[in-house]
Design brief:
10 helices
């Protein structure tokens, strides 16, 4: 079941990767399948594609500059840029999905008031690179330490797909994380992250044309109350986590440019 859901997620979201949020929820396969079907029609609507775009380009003012040509040839830098473009494209969609699920589970269901303005063509966007994720236990020691530090800074039990993909370019990851870590601890990051999260909640209610009515109690015959609480906690964590991740990818994207 999970394999089919994963393939459909890539097909609908138009990217060659199954992101962290879905891999974490795969521990609850019945929930993932049920919740994905609830948001799937919305993710094919032009309304939601446009809503995602409202979250993509952020006014980050305090960006460190670094000449990465000291570390990599231009052909490699272009590969890194293409990889960042995948996450820059998909992360706003992910936070909308997380917000739709959290709102619905919190008895604020998505009514689907907006009219459908059109449908997008599903399928991975042509030219997007293959994404290979580095597994922390298999990584060289120095890369392991960076990934573990990223998890620690995010108060997370694992590392987002974005950073695990960038770990294939350890010098880029090392330099960009050194600057990004300082930015994460600053006021601008906190303010923009909060605005992003709030905007994602407003957008799912305003722009999603189809209802999302995920009812956690409907899975009471599948999961224990403890497991259901765990699902709700995961969704809340990812809603917050993804709001920051959008900022972090945009920071790295601008840093390398």
């Amino acid at each position: 079941m999970i394999k089919e859901v994963y393939e459909d997620i890539k097909y609908v979201l138009k990217v060659p990767i199954v992101n962290f949020i879905f891999r974490a929820l795969a521990h609850y396969p019945e929930f993932l399948s049920y919740a994905w079907q609830q948001v799937r029609p919305n993710m094919l609507a032009i309304n939601v594609e446009a809503a995602s775009n409202e979250l993509r380009f952020l006014n980050i003012t305090n960006i460190s500059r670094y000449d990465f040509t000291k570390k990599y040839p231009l052909v490699t830098l272009n590969k890194i840029k293409k990889m960042l473009s995948v996450f820059h494209y998909v992360n706003p969609k992910l936070v909308l999905i997380a917000s739709a699920w959290v709102e619905s589970i919190s008895n604020r269901p998505i009514i689907g008031k907006s009219n459908v303005t059109g449908m997008i063509q599903p399928g991975v966007i042509k030219g997007m690179p293959q994404i290979n994720l580095v597994h922390i236990p298999d990584a060289p020691y120095d890369t392991q330490q960076i990934l573990l530090d990223i998890a620690k800074e995010h108060h997370s039990f694992d590392v987002a797909s974005d950073f695990r993909a960038l770990a294939n370019y350890p010098q880029f990851l090392s330099v960009s994380w050194m600057h990004l870590k300082t930015y994460i601890r600053g006021d601008e990051y906190s303010v923009l992250k909060s605005k992003l999260l709030n905007a994602s909640v407003d957008l799912v209610h305003q722009k999603m044309p189809y209802p999302v009515t995920v009812k956690i109690e409907s899975l009471a015959n599948v999961y224990t109350s403890t497991q259901l609480s765990g699902i709700m906690g995961l969704l809340s964590m990812f809603q917050n986590f993804l709001s920051g991740l959008i900022l972090e990818v945009e920071y790295m994207r601008k840093m390398i440019q």
